[in-house]
Amino acid sequence: MTRVVANRQVLAGLCIVALFVLVAALAPNLAPVGPTTQNLSEDLRPPSTAHPFGQDKLGRDVLSRVVYGARISLLVGVLVVGISAVLGLGIGALAGYAGGRSDELIMRGIDVFLAFPGILLAIGVAAVLGPSLRNVLLALCAIGWTGYARLVRGEVLAWREREFVSAAVALGATPGRVVWRHIVPQLLTPLVVQATFGVAGAIVAEASLSFLGLGVQPPTPSWGAMINDGRSFLLVAPHVALFPGLAMVLIVLGLQLLGDGLRDALDVRTED
Amino acid sequence: MRAYVLRRLLLAVPTVLGVVTLVFVLVHLIPGDPVDVMLGETARAADKAQLRRRLGLDRPLATQYVRYLYHLARGDLGRSLQSGRPVRDLIVARYPATVELAGGALLVAVLCAAPLGIAAAARPRSALDAACRALAVVGTAVPNFWLGPFLILVFAIGCEWLPVSGRGGVAHLVLPAVTLGMGMAAILARMLRGSLLERLGDDYISTARAKGLGERRVLFKHALRNAALPVVTILGLQAGGLLAGAIITETIFAWPGIGRLTLLAIQARDYPLVQGCILVIALSYVVVNLGTDLLYGLIDPRVRS
Amino acid sequence: MLCMLAGCTSAPPTPPGCVTVGLDTAPLTLDPRFATDATAEQIGSLLFDGLTRLDDQARRVPQLATSWDMPDAQTYVFHLRAGFRFPNGQALTAADVKATYDSVRNPRARSAKQAALEPIDGIDVLDALTVRFRLRYPFSPLLNETGLGILSARQIAASPTTPLPQPAGSGPFRLALVTDDRVVIVRNADYPSQPPRLAGVVFAIVPDAVTRLLELKRGTLDLVQNGVDPDSLEWVRHQPTLQLLTSPSTTFHYLGMNLRDPVLADVRVRQALAYAIDRDAIVDTILKGLAIPATGLLPPSHWAYSASVPTYEYNPKRAAELLDDAGYVDPDGDGPAPRLRLSYKTTTIELRRRIAEVLQAQLANVGVALDVRSYEWATFYNDIKQGNFQLYSLSWVGIEDPDIYYLTCHSSQVPPLGSNRGAFREATIDQLTEAARRSVDVDERRRLYAEVQHRVAQLLPVIPLWWPTNVAAVNRRLHGFEPRPNASYASLVDAWVEEH
Predict the structure, then answer these.
(1) Checking DSSP bridges between strand C478-479 and strand C496-497, what pairing results, if any?
(2) What does the mean pLDDT of chain C come to?
(3) Is B290 in contact with B5 (CB distance < 8 Å)?
(4) Which residues of B touch A115 (CB under 8 A)?
């Protein structure tokens, strides 16, 4: 454990992520103005003392929107990864432990999901259910769970044959209990590492969905929507997309440092 | 070997069938009527009903599904609802462009990631390692739809070395391939670095070093071979992701590929075209996966069983 | 000509004498019998000729037909001009006209244009240059359909019920190449009135707006019409090689309301919403002044336009009063609690969403909370068609005949039969629009439609927002191009490029 804390990467990553979590939590206190207060006559003003990050197309304060946007982006990241991981854990563990036919069947199912182009699945979901934050989460989870399932299944298959597991079963433990008490703790480290990268991926995926018009609805500020919106002003007012873009780069950096650091520190295998 | 390939292909059939079914169900569930899109608003209800009958859209879903499978088994992908042209022709016209872009992106990704990943593993915590980290962050955090215009501004407008958009010769391929390949390069670089670092810590490496083999030989001949395995796996999985990124890249660079065709087909509710495109995409994914598995077998003979 | 063809089909830079136009989508089909999307119509005006064409006042003027007369209210006789030829040298005759129209009217062809030709009973070829249309009943808007591009009977016989992949017309340009990412047309030197000066036009499909801008700057695109974001137009003005050309359009952008909804059935609520919207602010800041706040469906350039209609200038106080009258009182005065919640549907286009956000803020000022939902087109259109909405906004593009009032306001025209999406029902409007379609007297129609415009503005089934202006970003080397109100590329016929 001390190795984890002492690792500088982990420390740096944790600091950055903690900073963003703090910003998101304290958004109402940190943002100088509301994120939806419009001021049409001051559209696309560059950074100034009153508005350090400048103003967007509707005259809204970019700094406030970036700060509030942290909430949405972190929410998306954490929820998508959380739900995908739980789903993937369940299905993967089932497949790995059951083995044989059920395993084959589930693996086919996973393959189908993997062969299906993710973004088109997201479009399908958004088209059926209408774009909204909730449906963004749904779409991203539908794409994301497969990675965790594969990881978990592989590990469960490997660990299933270990002696202490057969011993536990011989002593009368139910399969569920075996999985929970003995196998899952072994999985925690690769899972955590995958999760930190997953959060970064989900935040960026939300931006791509905004590009296709399927992200969060106005006037909700999300970094992805702001970056996409700012594209139209690339040539005249780059500050609109620059600051949420920097925020995204920074949090991805933090999450990557965290993930890599954890992996280096815990010396985890990287097989998929 | 042949038996292995055959078995894998056979196993792929239910997967592809599963994808086809999933698409069929999904696309018919989405609200929106292709007949409306085709005939527009002023068409009479009777005309719309007649068209629906002609296209077989008024039959129950199960019947339509069975008919689709029947035609599929005979190689007939149907006709596009919008233009009346055979789906196969439409896809064949655009598929090479997609392959070209995907191949280019893969090349860019490997060319960027391999040297950087290896160098970063050889000299951890050095400037090269930092550069590898920078690539990973930028490649992941900067979305395609920003990287593309930025690259255009620098290379096509600033110094007019490359064209802005469109498909043509090699010069046209550079910017779209770099845009699409960046994300993949980021993941590969980190993957390779991590994997290589681990292998370098293995026992047999210490043995090799103790035997007096040069560092470079150790790195390339022994560690890299094994480190490449998980990277190859990731490569296979990412190949599917290339298509997702490709829709955006195709839109920005006006690249006439399958991704954009599928998007437009979905928007127009052109069922046969959507189904045809996704079928082709799923098949490509299966083939690429088979390819990476074979590559895996080549690198590590132990796997071939 | 083959060299020209080869030259024009190669990738940029644009070959001499040619012009490259940027489009955001590819036309689905160029066959005029089946083409319904705007892009196909705009390119089609360069390739095909119709009996008549539209002038800038939305009136029908001669093209293939030098004149036409009406022996009675149900018959039109068109006299064709000689000299129009198809690429194979064959002259265009009345038989080709009949073949084209009959092909569209054929139910097996499943053409979207069939319904509009329903009033036609039959078409007769009187001689090589005279053709007669017999109608079932008097129907003045029929002239609108006489812009249909004419194909040769031989082509039609080869493909009677499916679109031709490469249709050949008699127009000033000939179709040379159609691929997934470009459409190439070349000059028809034998065009009777005045052959074009341009050697050819390349229509390049560039889906992304920012990329189109960058191509314009680089010079690989010479012309982009209505495809540039309003905020980038200032940047375009600053480019030494580019210039902006504008023209009023025949597009009408509006806020639709569902009159089946009990809240919106009250005309006071509808009028209140109209007073609560500050259209000038939106036009000035979001559209950068490139629109005119609208008073009704028909633009001022239209021959049937009536200026004396009630208008709703921005007046939030009046809006609040009307809402109070209607029974929707503000529960907490100036506080955040709204009087009313309404849902607003729009498409996923950036500009539309931005406008939605502004409307949201403006309506919040008078205590109306707007819940904005954006959908991709087909889902959105499906909802609108089925009446599954409260508010939405859309545009009518290419308004020609005032008969559109029948389509949008007559009680029988509720979807799927027509476009009266809000289910507006009003007896006088029904009578007026019916009478106007039957009348063939222009002055009488003008009078009837003036009254329709007045009543519609009073009862407000939709809230007029603005008439967008057509904007073309043009490379200075292209001369003689003028954007037309219906955004067609027809003026490329008179355009020319200077060569260095």
Answers:
(1) antiparallel
(2) 90
(3) yes
(4) 15-16, 19, 240, 281-282, 285-286
Residue of C nearest to A59 (CA): C285
CB atoms under 10 Å from CB of B296, counted, come to 18
pLDDT(B56) > 50: yes
Structure tokens at C303: 């021959």
The residue segments making up the domain with residue B205 are: 95-267
CA dist C107 and C161 (Å) reads 9
Kindly state whether C315 is in contact with chain B, defined as any CB-CB distance less than 8 angstroms: no
B300 found inside a domain = no
Of residues B31, B234, B244, nearest to A119 (C-beta) = B244
At C241 the pLDDT is 94
**Do B193 and B250 reside in the same domain of the chain?**
yes
In chain A, the residue whose alpha carbon lies closest to the alpha carbon of B21 is: A112
| CATH number, position B204 | 1.10.3720.10
Does one domain contain both B120 and B242? yes
Query: Is the pLDDT reported for residue B302 higher than 80?
Result: no
CB contact, 8 Å: A113 with chain C?
Answer: no
Question: Rounded CA gap, C485 and C299, in Å?
Answer: 10
C285/A218 CB distance under 8 A = no
- Structure tokens, C210: 């920012």
Residue A272, pLDDT above cutoff 70: no
Closest CA to A224 of A70, A12, A38, A48: A70
Task: Point out the residue among B33, B39, B167 whose CB comes nearest to the CB of C112.
Answer: B39
Supply the Cα-derived Rg of chain B in whole angstroms. 24
Nearest alpha-carbon partner for C472 in C42, C27, C9, C17: C42
Q: How far apart are CA A120 and CA A127, in angstroms?
A: 10
The pLDDT score that the predictor gives to residue C6 is 45
Q: Is residue B304 included in any domain, yes or no?
A: no
Claim to verify: residue B117 and residue B260 sit in the same structural domain: yes
Claim to verify: residue B63 and residue B104 sit in the same structural domain:
no
**Contact of C485 with C226, CB cutoff 8 Å:** no
Asked if residue B27 belongs to a domain, the reply is yes
The answer to the question of residue B1 being in a domain is no
The verdict on B242 and B124 lying in the same domain is yes
Whose tokens are 């029974």? That residue is C327
- Cα A173 to Cα A157, A186, B192, C380: the distances in Å are 18, 18, 40, 55
pTM: 0.88
**Reported ipTM:** 0.85
Q: For B18, which of A108, A234, A252 is closest by C-beta distance?
A: A108
Instruction: Measure the CA–CA gap between C324 and C319, rounded to whole angstroms.
Output: 9
Interface of C with A (CB under 8 A): 209-210, 213, 229, 231-232, 234-235, 281-282, 284-286, 347-350, 353-354, 356-358, 360-361, 372-376, 378-379
| C-alpha to C-alpha distance for C128 and C453, rounded to whole angstroms | 43
